[in-house]
Design a protein that fits this description.
homodimer; Rossmann fold; binds adenosine-5'-triphosphate
Chain lengths: ~230, ~230
């Protein structure tokens, strides 16, 4: 159960304030499947970064299951993030000197998982995203869509309770994109809360809950029948 | 007039050769509008990098207007590229410490253009891609789709004879994406050769010439009525 109240994020550019998020309110139920759409620059990634505890608002509150996250210190926020949230970045943020396998296993290494548990989980998710035959490739040896899929695999390898996906199919052809959407939706059907920022209208309409942002604000927020 | 004959690109990964391009043949007429589509990992960016003189094939030839580019030394290839080719990278490749204006003006600075000519051209293309109000922002202060549009503006600011676009709308909403497509097509209508790699079927079908790649090879290559 996620609760955002009165979220604001303002950047100062020269004299002019730039309101990336304005008085944003939003609730997300545990296990919900939410899509977030809107024009380039409207604040979608900024919102997702707040949800992912990667950024702090200038004002307002963000409660996860009753915990007031803005009142936690950085170590507590990091622990909450590590233990609950998987994040697929719009710009992937992979580690260039690690290969695909090592990039995906990194969250498990940090969590102290055994070598055997890591190998099983990593090979499973690499196979789900169609990259088992690329596990030894480093980012410089992968295509754009392959990089995107490594980022997706890394975000899901520990089955986080909350999965935040920032434009997860932007570099994928129709067929790979569909496979990825199936992977994400299967996780959601297992109870994982799924928030997908997307420019793809077809993907956005698959969510039962659809949010539209313009200029830092939520302008539409509707629940639909699934699919 | 571009002519590719027998292009091969092979990577050695451990023991196994990976054929990123296999015996590829292709002609592109001056002023043609070509789309290139195909699965993630099929070799589209590799092909575009060859066309952009950013990479060399292991075998085969690439003629531009009769010039055998594989026989040129690196300085000659760089000059040919600088004077004729604009490239929109799938991963943007902007310079982090320069702002949007400075990133876009860079080709003109390198070409020795005057301050006044640079300002007029840069502000014009920034306005075409809808980013005039972001010219002072550095890449770290821009959204994903804004970064993409800066990369596009940089590629077109000197009106290159050949424009190579690697997934130019992947991070854009429908409306910004349409604006960008209009910008690219207007340049093509002025005589610029336009090659667009895309996963967006709607964009791909707008080209009069449509190429499909699978596994390093061209499997379809058709000319259609425009639009
Ligand atoms: N550090 C910053 N300083 C100033 N402005 C910023 C900064 N970061 C983001 N912005 C601005 O905040 C706005 C929202 O950015 P955000 O990345 O959330 O947009 P977005 O909806 O994800 O866009 P896209 O669809 O292009 O990815 C943008 O207009 C951007 O220029
Ligand atoms: N340096 C490298 N070493 C080994 N393999 C590589 C290297 N660079 C690319 N590859 C492989 O070559 C193939 C073609 O890559 P390319 O980037 O051209 O694909 P693409 O069609 O652009 O894919 P996408 O749609 O995902 O961007 C991929 O399968 C990739 O893994
Ligand atoms: Mg974004
Ligand atoms: Mg590519």
């Amino acid at each position: 159960m996620i609760q955002l109240r009165g979220l604001n994020k303002t950047y100062q550019m020269g004299g002019q304030p730039l309101h990336a998020l304005r008085d944003l309110d939003m609730d997300i139920q545990t296990g919900e499947y939410v899509s977030v759409m809107g024009p380039s620059g409207s604040g979608k990634s900024t919102l997702l970064n707040m949800l992912g505890l990667l950024d702090r608002p200038d004002s307002g509150s963000y409660h996860i299951n009753g915990i007031a996250t803005e009142q936690l210190v950085e170590e507590q926020r990091a622990a909450l993030r590590r233990d609950n949230i998987g994040f697929i970045f719009q710009a992937f943020h992979l580690i260039g000197r690690l290969n695909a396998f090592e990039n995906v296993e990194l969250p498990m290494v940090l969590a102290g998982e055994t070598t055997r548990a890591r190998r099983e989980a990593v090979e499973h998710v690499l196979q789900l995203v169609g990259l088992l035959d690329r596990k030894h490739h480093r980012p410089g040896q992968l295509s754009g869509g392959q990089l995107q899929r490594v980022a997706i695999a890394r975000a899901i390898v520990m089955k986080p309770r909350i999965l935040l996906a920032d434009e997860p199919t932007g570099n994928l052809d129709q067929s790979s994109g569909r496979d990825i959407v199936n992977v994400l939706e299967n996780l959601n059907s297992e109870g994982i809360t799924l928030v997908v920022v997307t420019h793809d209208g077809n993907l956005g309409q698959r969510a039962q809950r659809r949010v539209r942002m313009v200029d830092g604000q939520i302008v539409e927020d509707e629940r639909h029948a699934p699919g």
